[in-house]
Amino acid sequence: MTSLPFDFEVAERQRTLFLLDARIAAARAELTRQQGSTADAERRRLSRHEVRLVHANERLVLSALDAWADVQAMREELGALAEVSQRDALTNIPNRRMALDRLEMAIASARRHVRRLGVLFVDLDGFKSINDSLGHAAGDRALQDAAHRLTGAVRDSDTVGRFGGDEFLVILPDIDGAREAALVAAKMLSALSDPAAEEAALSASIGIALYPQDAPSSAELIACADKAMYRAKAHGGRRSEFHADRPLEPAQRRAPPVDDLPLAANWHDGRMADMREADMREANEHLVLAALTAQGLQTKAEDIHQRLVMFLAMVAHELRNPLNPIRMATDLLQHAQADEGLLVQVQGILRRQVGHLARLVDDLLDGARASAGKFRLECGRVALREILDPVIDAIRPAVALRQQTIATTLQSGPIMINADPIRLAQVFGNLLDNASKYTQRGGEIDVDLACAGGIATLRVCDNGIGISPEALPQIFDLFVQEPHARAHDRQGLGLGLAIVRELVEAHGGTIVATSPGRGLGSEFAVTLPVSIGDPPAGSGTPGA
Question: Is 49 exposed, middle or buried, given 0-12, 13-18 or 19+ CB atoms closer than 10 A?
Answer without folding.
Answer: middle
